[in-house]
Amino acid sequence: MTALEILKQHEIKKTPARMSMIQVLQSGQYPMSENEIKEHMANLYDRVTFYRNVQTLSNAGIIHKIVADNTTVRYALNCCEIEHNHTAEHAHFYCKNCHEVVCLNQIKIPAYDLPKGYKFVDCDVIIKGTCEKCNQ
Amino acid sequence: MTALEILKQHEIKKTPARMSMIQVLQSGQYPMSENEIKEHMANLYDRVTFYRNVQTLSNAGIIHKIVADNTTVRYALNCCEIEHNHTAEHAHFYCKNCHEVVCLNQIKIPAYDLPKGYKFVDCDVIIKGTCEKCNQ
DNA sequence: ATTCAAATGAAACAATGTTGCAAAGATAAT
DNA sequence: ATTATCTTTGCAACATTGTTTCATTTGAAT
I need a labelling partner for B80 at 20 to 30 A (CA). Which of A1, A101, B61, B109 fits? Predict the structure, then answer.
Protein backbone atom coordinates (compact mmCIF):
# COMPACT_ATOMS: atom_id res chain seq x y z
CA MET A 1 0.00 0.00 0.00
CA THR A 2 1.41 3.37 -0.97
CA ALA A 3 1.53 6.38 1.32
CA LEU A 4 -1.01 8.08 -0.89
CA GLU A 5 -3.40 5.15 -0.69
CA ILE A 6 -3.12 5.08 3.07
CA LEU A 7 -3.96 8.75 3.37
CA LYS A 8 -6.86 8.44 0.96
CA GLN A 9 -8.25 5.45 2.76
CA HIS A 10 -8.38 7.45 5.98
CA GLU A 11 -9.60 10.60 4.28
CA ILE A 12 -6.63 12.60 5.38
CA LYS A 13 -5.27 15.27 3.15
CA LYS A 14 -2.13 14.53 1.21
CA THR A 15 0.67 16.88 2.18
CA PRO A 16 4.39 16.59 1.53
CA ALA A 17 5.20 16.23 5.23
CA ARG A 18 2.67 13.44 5.76
CA MET A 19 3.64 11.58 2.62
CA SER A 20 7.27 11.72 3.62
CA MET A 21 6.62 10.59 7.20
CA ILE A 22 4.72 7.54 6.04
CA GLN A 23 7.27 6.68 3.37
CA VAL A 24 10.11 6.95 5.86
CA LEU A 25 8.30 4.66 8.27
CA GLN A 26 7.63 2.21 5.46
CA SER A 27 11.27 2.15 4.47
CA GLY A 28 12.50 1.42 8.01
CA GLN A 29 12.39 -2.08 9.37
CA TYR A 30 12.05 -1.04 13.00
CA PRO A 31 9.91 1.46 14.84
CA MET A 32 11.77 4.75 14.47
CA SER A 33 12.46 7.63 16.82
CA GLU A 34 11.79 11.24 15.96
CA ASN A 35 15.47 11.79 15.20
CA GLU A 36 15.68 8.84 12.87
CA ILE A 37 12.60 10.00 11.04
CA LYS A 38 13.92 13.54 10.93
CA GLU A 39 17.16 12.45 9.29
CA HIS A 40 15.29 10.69 6.54
CA MET A 41 12.84 13.50 5.98
CA ALA A 42 15.56 16.06 5.39
CA ASN A 43 14.12 19.43 4.41
CA LEU A 44 10.55 18.28 4.88
CA TYR A 45 11.03 18.07 8.61
CA ASP A 46 9.74 20.70 10.98
CA ARG A 47 9.39 19.87 14.65
CA VAL A 48 5.97 21.35 15.24
CA THR A 49 4.55 19.96 12.03
CA PHE A 50 5.97 16.60 12.95
CA TYR A 51 4.23 16.55 16.33
CA ARG A 52 1.00 17.71 14.80
CA ASN A 53 1.10 15.04 12.15
CA VAL A 54 1.92 12.42 14.75
CA GLN A 55 -1.34 13.48 16.35
CA THR A 56 -3.28 13.37 13.12
CA LEU A 57 -1.87 10.09 11.86
CA SER A 58 -2.13 8.36 15.17
CA ASN A 59 -5.71 9.50 15.74
CA ALA A 60 -6.52 8.05 12.35
CA GLY A 61 -4.87 4.80 13.37
CA ILE A 62 -2.24 5.01 10.67
CA ILE A 63 0.69 5.05 13.08
CA HIS A 64 1.18 4.42 16.76
CA LYS A 65 3.70 5.34 19.39
CA ILE A 66 5.86 2.84 21.19
CA VAL A 67 7.34 4.02 24.46
CA ALA A 68 9.82 1.57 25.82
CA ASP A 69 11.83 2.80 28.71
CA ASN A 70 11.16 6.42 28.29
CA THR A 71 12.36 8.70 27.04
CA THR A 72 12.74 7.71 23.43
CA VAL A 73 9.37 7.48 21.83
CA ARG A 74 9.27 5.47 18.64
CA TYR A 75 6.75 5.47 15.86
CA ALA A 76 5.55 2.67 13.64
CA LEU A 77 2.95 2.12 10.98
CA ASN A 78 -0.04 0.12 12.10
CA CYS A 79 0.87 -2.65 9.76
CA CYS A 80 -1.55 -5.10 11.35
CA GLU A 81 -4.54 -2.99 10.69
CA ILE A 82 -3.58 -2.94 7.07
CA GLU A 83 -2.56 -6.55 6.70
CA HIS A 84 -5.14 -8.46 8.70
CA ASN A 85 -7.87 -5.85 9.11
CA HIS A 86 -7.15 -4.60 12.61
CA THR A 87 -7.81 -7.62 14.72
CA ALA A 88 -4.66 -8.50 16.62
CA GLU A 89 -1.79 -6.16 17.27
CA HIS A 90 1.61 -7.55 18.10
CA ALA A 91 4.03 -7.11 20.97
CA HIS A 92 7.28 -5.17 20.81
CA PHE A 93 10.69 -6.00 22.19
CA TYR A 94 12.95 -3.42 23.78
CA CYS A 95 16.63 -4.21 24.25
CA LYS A 96 17.90 -2.81 27.52
CA ASN A 97 21.42 -2.90 26.17
CA CYS A 98 21.33 -1.38 22.68
CA HIS A 99 17.92 0.27 23.16
CA GLU A 100 16.57 -0.92 19.86
CA VAL A 101 12.94 -1.82 19.45
CA VAL A 102 11.74 -4.58 17.19
CA CYS A 103 8.31 -5.89 16.32
CA LEU A 104 7.49 -9.36 17.59
CA ASN A 105 5.01 -10.23 14.92
CA GLN A 106 4.67 -13.77 16.25
CA ILE A 107 3.43 -12.54 19.61
CA LYS A 108 -0.13 -11.41 19.22
CA ILE A 109 -1.91 -9.46 21.89
CA PRO A 110 -4.78 -11.44 23.35
CA ALA A 111 -8.24 -10.10 24.10
CA TYR A 112 -8.09 -9.31 27.77
CA ASP A 113 -11.11 -9.60 30.01
CA LEU A 114 -11.52 -6.31 31.80
CA PRO A 115 -13.45 -5.72 35.02
CA LYS A 116 -17.09 -4.70 34.70
CA GLY A 117 -17.59 -1.20 33.41
CA TYR A 118 -14.25 -0.96 31.66
CA LYS A 119 -14.09 -0.66 27.90
CA PHE A 120 -11.16 -2.01 25.92
CA VAL A 121 -9.77 0.03 23.08
CA ASP A 122 -6.09 -0.65 22.70
CA CYS A 123 -3.23 -2.52 24.26
CA ASP A 124 0.53 -2.12 24.35
CA VAL A 125 2.83 -4.97 25.23
CA ILE A 126 6.49 -4.14 25.63
CA ILE A 127 8.76 -7.05 26.43
CA LYS A 128 12.14 -5.98 27.75
CA GLY A 129 15.40 -7.83 27.87
CA THR A 130 18.45 -8.23 25.71
CA CYS A 131 18.37 -8.86 22.00
CA GLU A 132 20.02 -11.40 19.76
CA LYS A 133 22.96 -9.19 18.79
CA CYS A 134 23.66 -8.10 22.35
CA ASN A 135 23.57 -11.66 23.68
CA GLN A 136 26.35 -12.92 21.43
CA MET B 1 6.30 -4.03 54.94
CA THR B 2 7.60 -0.67 56.11
CA ALA B 3 9.63 1.68 53.97
CA LEU B 4 12.60 1.07 56.20
CA GLU B 5 12.33 -2.68 55.83
CA ILE B 6 12.13 -2.35 52.07
CA LEU B 7 15.27 -0.27 51.93
CA LYS B 8 17.14 -2.59 54.26
CA GLN B 9 16.11 -5.63 52.31
CA HIS B 10 17.64 -4.12 49.20
CA GLU B 11 20.67 -2.74 51.01
CA ILE B 12 19.91 0.81 50.08
CA LYS B 13 20.72 3.62 52.46
CA LYS B 14 17.92 5.13 54.43
CA THR B 15 17.48 8.80 53.61
CA PRO B 16 14.54 11.10 54.30
CA ALA B 17 13.77 11.53 50.61
CA ARG B 18 13.71 7.79 49.91
CA MET B 19 11.68 6.97 52.97
CA SER B 20 9.15 9.62 52.04
CA MET B 21 8.91 8.51 48.40
CA ILE B 22 8.17 4.95 49.38
CA GLN B 23 5.68 5.95 52.05
CA VAL B 24 3.85 8.21 49.64
CA LEU B 25 3.62 5.43 47.07
CA GLN B 26 2.39 3.06 49.75
CA SER B 27 -0.33 5.47 50.80
CA GLY B 28 -1.65 5.96 47.24
CA GLN B 29 -3.94 3.42 45.70
CA TYR B 30 -2.93 4.12 42.12
CA PRO B 31 0.39 4.54 40.38
CA MET B 32 1.30 8.18 40.95
CA SER B 33 2.83 10.86 38.77
CA GLU B 34 5.78 12.97 39.78
CA ASN B 35 3.49 15.87 40.64
CA GLU B 36 1.25 13.76 42.82
CA ILE B 37 4.25 12.39 44.64
CA LYS B 38 5.74 15.85 44.95
CA GLU B 39 2.61 17.21 46.58
CA HIS B 40 2.70 14.53 49.21
CA MET B 41 6.41 14.84 49.88
CA ALA B 42 6.18 18.55 50.61
CA ASN B 43 9.51 19.94 51.73
CA LEU B 44 11.30 16.66 51.16
CA TYR B 45 10.90 17.00 47.43
CA ASP B 46 13.71 18.13 45.18
CA ARG B 47 13.48 17.46 41.47
CA VAL B 48 16.99 16.23 40.90
CA THR B 49 16.97 14.07 43.97
CA PHE B 50 13.64 12.67 42.92
CA TYR B 51 14.94 11.60 39.52
CA ARG B 52 18.03 10.12 41.04
CA ASN B 53 16.05 8.14 43.54
CA VAL B 54 13.71 6.95 40.85
CA GLN B 55 16.84 5.53 39.23
CA THR B 56 18.09 3.96 42.41
CA LEU B 57 14.79 2.52 43.55
CA SER B 58 13.86 1.23 40.16
CA ASN B 59 17.24 -0.38 39.59
CA ALA B 60 16.77 -2.11 42.88
CA GLY B 61 13.36 -3.31 41.75
CA ILE B 62 11.54 -1.45 44.49
CA ILE B 63 9.50 0.70 42.14
CA HIS B 64 8.78 0.74 38.44
CA LYS B 65 7.64 3.28 35.90
CA ILE B 66 4.41 3.05 34.02
CA VAL B 67 4.24 5.08 30.83
CA ALA B 68 0.79 5.09 29.38
CA ASP B 69 0.28 7.51 26.59
CA ASN B 70 3.24 9.64 27.23
CA THR B 71 3.91 12.08 28.60
CA THR B 72 2.82 11.42 32.15
CA VAL B 73 5.08 8.85 33.68
CA ARG B 74 3.71 7.17 36.76
CA TYR B 75 5.45 5.30 39.49
CA ALA B 76 4.35 2.35 41.55
CA LEU B 77 5.79 0.05 44.14
CA ASN B 78 6.57 -3.40 42.87
CA CYS B 79 3.93 -4.85 45.06
CA CYS B 80 4.00 -8.24 43.37
CA GLU B 81 7.59 -8.81 44.14
CA ILE B 82 6.81 -8.18 47.74
CA GLU B 83 3.52 -9.99 47.99
CA HIS B 84 4.01 -13.10 45.92
CA ASN B 85 7.80 -13.16 45.59
CA HIS B 86 8.32 -11.70 42.14
CA THR B 87 6.75 -14.25 39.86
CA ALA B 88 4.01 -12.64 37.86
CA GLU B 89 3.62 -8.93 37.33
CA HIS B 90 0.23 -7.53 36.47
CA ALA B 91 -1.16 -5.39 33.68
CA HIS B 92 -2.18 -1.76 34.00
CA PHE B 93 -5.17 0.07 32.66
CA TYR B 94 -5.00 3.58 31.25
CA CYS B 95 -8.19 5.56 30.79
CA LYS B 96 -8.07 7.61 27.62
CA ASN B 97 -10.69 9.91 29.03
CA CYS B 98 -9.65 10.77 32.59
CA HIS B 99 -6.04 9.64 32.15
CA GLU B 100 -5.96 7.68 35.35
CA VAL B 101 -3.96 4.51 35.65
CA VAL B 102 -5.06 1.55 37.74
CA CYS B 103 -3.50 -1.79 38.46
CA LEU B 104 -5.29 -4.79 37.01
CA ASN B 105 -4.17 -7.29 39.58
CA GLN B 106 -6.33 -10.01 38.07
CA ILE B 107 -4.53 -9.81 34.74
CA LYS B 108 -1.16 -11.46 35.12
CA ILE B 109 1.52 -11.15 32.52
CA PRO B 110 2.24 -14.49 30.87
CA ALA B 111 5.69 -15.87 30.14
CA TYR B 112 6.20 -15.01 26.52
CA ASP B 113 8.22 -17.19 24.21
CA LEU B 114 10.83 -15.02 22.59
CA PRO B 115 12.70 -15.76 19.36
CA LYS B 116 16.04 -17.57 19.65
CA GLY B 117 18.79 -15.44 21.09
CA TYR B 118 16.51 -13.06 22.93
CA LYS B 119 16.53 -12.92 26.70
CA PHE B 120 13.45 -11.96 28.69
CA VAL B 121 13.80 -9.67 31.66
CA ASP B 122 10.66 -7.67 32.07
CA CYS B 123 7.32 -6.94 30.49
CA ASP B 124 4.88 -4.05 30.49
CA VAL B 125 1.26 -4.48 29.53
CA ILE B 126 -0.80 -1.33 29.24
CA ILE B 127 -4.42 -1.81 28.34
CA LYS B 128 -6.09 1.36 27.13
CA GLY B 129 -9.71 2.28 26.98
CA THR B 130 -12.25 4.00 29.16
CA CYS B 131 -12.70 3.31 32.83
CA GLU B 132 -15.70 2.51 34.97
CA LYS B 133 -16.30 6.07 36.12
CA CYS B 134 -16.00 7.52 32.63
CA ASN B 135 -18.38 4.96 31.13
CA GLN B 136 -21.28 5.88 33.37
C1' DA C 1 34.40 11.07 67.26
C1' DT C 2 36.50 10.32 62.79
C1' DT C 3 36.39 9.02 58.26
C1' DC C 4 34.81 8.26 53.65
C1' DA C 5 31.72 7.13 50.33
C1' DA C 6 27.12 8.14 49.03
C1' DA C 7 23.30 11.37 48.74
C1' DT C 8 21.63 16.01 48.41
C1' DG C 9 20.40 20.58 46.40
C1' DA C 10 21.27 24.44 43.46
C1' DA C 11 22.27 26.21 38.88
C1' DA C 12 22.69 25.48 34.33
C1' DC C 13 21.72 22.86 30.56
C1' DA C 14 19.46 19.69 27.12
C1' DA C 15 15.70 17.44 25.16
C1' DT C 16 10.88 16.96 24.45
C1' DG C 17 6.37 18.59 23.73
C1' DT C 18 2.77 22.62 23.20
C1' DT C 19 0.46 27.11 21.94
C1' DG C 20 -0.45 31.30 19.26
C1' DC C 21 -0.38 33.38 15.12
C1' DA C 22 0.57 34.88 10.47
C1' DA C 23 1.50 33.03 5.93
C1' DA C 24 0.90 29.48 2.45
C1' DG C 25 -1.81 25.79 0.25
C1' DA C 26 -5.77 23.25 -0.84
C1' DT C 27 -11.17 23.13 -1.72
C1' DA C 28 -15.27 24.52 -3.05
C1' DA C 29 -18.62 27.88 -4.87
C1' DT C 30 -19.66 31.35 -7.81
C1' DA D 1 -10.50 32.48 -13.24
C1' DT D 2 -11.70 34.81 -8.50
C1' DT D 3 -13.13 34.94 -4.23
C1' DA D 4 -14.16 32.96 0.19
C1' DT D 5 -13.11 29.35 3.49
C1' DC D 6 -10.79 25.94 5.89
C1' DT D 7 -6.59 23.24 6.74
C1' DT D 8 -1.79 22.86 7.14
C1' DT D 9 2.56 24.84 7.73
C1' DG D 10 6.56 27.16 9.93
C1' DC D 11 8.35 30.25 13.22
C1' DA D 12 8.84 32.14 17.87
C1' DA D 13 8.04 31.67 22.34
C1' DC D 14 6.90 28.91 26.00
C1' DA D 15 6.28 24.87 29.20
C1' DT D 16 7.57 20.54 30.92
C1' DT D 17 10.63 16.82 31.64
C1' DG D 18 15.00 14.90 32.39
C1' DT D 19 20.36 15.34 32.98
C1' DT D 20 25.05 17.04 34.34
C1' DT D 21 28.24 19.38 37.25
C1' DC D 22 29.92 20.51 41.55
C1' DA D 23 30.18 22.07 46.22
C1' DT D 24 28.05 20.70 50.54
C1' DT D 25 25.76 17.65 53.72
C1' DT D 26 24.61 13.32 55.54
C1' DG D 27 24.74 8.21 56.71
C1' DA D 28 26.81 4.61 58.64
C1' DA D 29 30.90 1.89 59.60
C1' DT D 30 35.01 1.81 62.11
Answer: A101
User: Which nucleotides of strand D come closer than 7 angstroms to any CB of the protein?
Assistant: 7-13, 16-21, 26-28
Alpha helices by DSSP H, A28-91:
34-41, 47-59, 79-83
Domains and CATH numbers, chain B: 3-135 (1.10.10.10)
Distance, in Å, from the CA atom of B93 to the CA atom of B91, rounded to the nearest integer, reads 7
Q: What is the pLDDT of residues B46-85, one digit of tens each?
A: 999 999 999 999 999 999 999 987 778 999 998 754 444 3
| Protein residues contacting strand D, judged by Cβ under 7 Å | A 12-13, 15-18, 44, 46, 48-49, 52-53, 56, 70-71; B 13-16, 34-35, 47-48, 51-52, 55, 71-73
Note the CA–C1' distance, B69 to D6, in angstroms. 30
Handedness of CA A94, A99, A105, A106 (dihedral sign): negative
Q: Look at residues B123, B85, B130 and name the one whose alpha carbon lies nearest to residue B107.
A: B123
| Residue A8 approaches strand C within 7 Å at CB | no
> Coil, strand or helix: which one is A8?
helix
In chain B, % helix, strand, coil (3-state, to 5) comes to 40, 30, 35
pLDDT at B36 over 90: yes
pLDDT digits (tens, 9 = 90+) for A47-104: 999 999 999 999 999 999 999 877 789 999 987 544 444 446 899 999 988 889 999 9
Q: How far apart are CA B71 and CA B50, in angstroms?
A: 17
